[in-house]
Amino acid sequence: MESGILTLDVFQTEKDIVIKSAIAGVSGKDLDISITSEKVTIKGARKEDLEERSKDYYYQELYWGEFERSVILPEEVNADETKATLKNGVLTIRLPKLSKSKKVEVA
Fold it and tell me: What's the predicted TM-score (pTM) here?
């Protein structure tokens, strides 16, 4: 069975890479977010409350079932400091950028 496509926005602030996705109908317990310094993968499932027959629909545009989306990040992030929130059906993931301006002294 194919996974549905998760639409999202990816943008940056001065300190973070931010990913936002409208995932109405999905609870936090139905989400799996994996993060590395270079990539984010969001998996989940949207469960339909009613079992309606396909022939009873006039339109059927909402996706019900499993979805997955991976994003290659434009720059490295600190995966350990990432924060994710789910509010009003919108998932927001804030990934702090790794500071490339830090100087490392080599003795």
Answer: 0.80
Q: How confident is the model over 7-27, as pLDDT tens digits?
A: 999 999 999 999 999 998 888
Dist CA 50 CA 13 (whole Å):
41
CATH class of 4-96: mainly beta
Strands 16-22 and 83-87, sheet pairing: unpaired
Angle at 30 between CA 26 and CA 34, to 5 degrees: 115
Q: Where are the domains of the chain?
A: 4-96
Amino acid at 57: Y
Bridging pattern class, strands 65-72 and 31-35: unpaired
DSSP result, 55-96: GG-S---S--EEEEEEEE-SS-B-GGG-EEEEETTEEEEEEE
93 φ, ψ (degrees, to nearest 5) = -115, 125
* Residue-level pLDDT at 47: 79
